[in-house]
Amino acid sequence: GVKRLSGGFVNVTWRIRLNAPYQDHTSIILKHAQPHLSSDEDFKIGVERSAYEYQALKAMSANQEVLGGGDSRVSVPEGLHYDVENNALIMQDVGTMKTLLDYATAKPSLSTEIASLVGTEIGAFIARLHNLGRKRRDQPAFKFFSGNIVGRTTADQLYQTIIPNAAKYGINDPLLPTVVKDLVEEVMNSEETLIMADLWSGNILLEFGEGNPSELKKIWLVDWELCKYGPASLDMGYFLGDCYLIARFQDELVGTTMRKAYLKSYARTAQDTMNYSKVTASIGAHLVMWTDFMKWGNDEEREEFVKKGV
Fold it and tell me: What are the Aminoglycoside phosphotransferase domain coordinates in residue numbering (predicted)?
């Protein structure tokens, strides 16, 4: 049976149940890349991004031990096959799960214990990813990600929404163009480390124990097509910015607990010190880019939050 899955701004995704197992899998996920967003035909995006996602999944599997191995709850689906002719990626079906976004916006939301655990686990995983990216920069399997031009230009396109988003809420700051120019320049050229580059609650799946909703077994990180060499602060800005949005508009305790746990865990595991001013700019950028898009709260609340971002 073939079932089209909802969600995903970028690709059309199907779950396919197989009559005969493929590499021991009886069900697989097929992602088909189109030259524009699945949700917006005017937002152009290169199809070669699937090749980067496939290689990212392979790299994560190959370096599982370095990324936390058996001690980590964070997992990445296995990349099974990439068809370059059809821009089709076949990967492991990890099952039907809700995203962190689903849980964070539900009433009641997540427990603080789970929120803390999620922040801790993801913080450690991303710190290890950044450590690994710095160490392996010159190895061909890693150097490859430096060429993810789609990953770089997508970040550029998103940064270009900052000034119009601020203007929409009547905010004109003379410094904004300079800040945006710096963010764009950095993401287009940075070779700092390997970044996931799409680290928000919509790409994080939570797997709980069967019949035991309080036992978090696994955290799946999905959607690796923007994975590239770039500034570590981009990953920080995405996750922490998302935590701020959740705290402001959904559940203050969950968002704040997750943010603090992530920061503490990242700082404990990372081999390089965090560049606080870059991280702060990246969080601000995230708030300006996504507050309007998420449409949480009312106009007044959103305006106040975009101001905070600026």
Answer: 2-255
Per-residue pLDDT of the chain (310 residues; tens, 9 = 90+): 888 776 666 678 899 999 999 999 999 999 988 777 666 777 667 668 889 999 999 999 999 999 998 899 999 999 999 998 888 899 999 999 999 999 999 999 999 999 999 999 999 999 999 999 999 999 999 999 999 999 999 999 999 999 999 999 999 999 999 999 999 999 999 999 999 999 999 999 999 998 787 899 999 999 999 999 999 999 999 999 999 999 999 999 999 999 999 999 999 999 999 999 999 999 999 999 999 999 999 999 999 999 999 9
The CATH number of whichever domain residue 265 belongs to comes to 3.90.1200
Instruction: Give the chain's domain count.
Output: 1
Domain range for 185 is 2-309
Is residue 198 part of the annotated active site? The answer reads: yes
List 93, 198, 235, 242, catalytic entry: 198
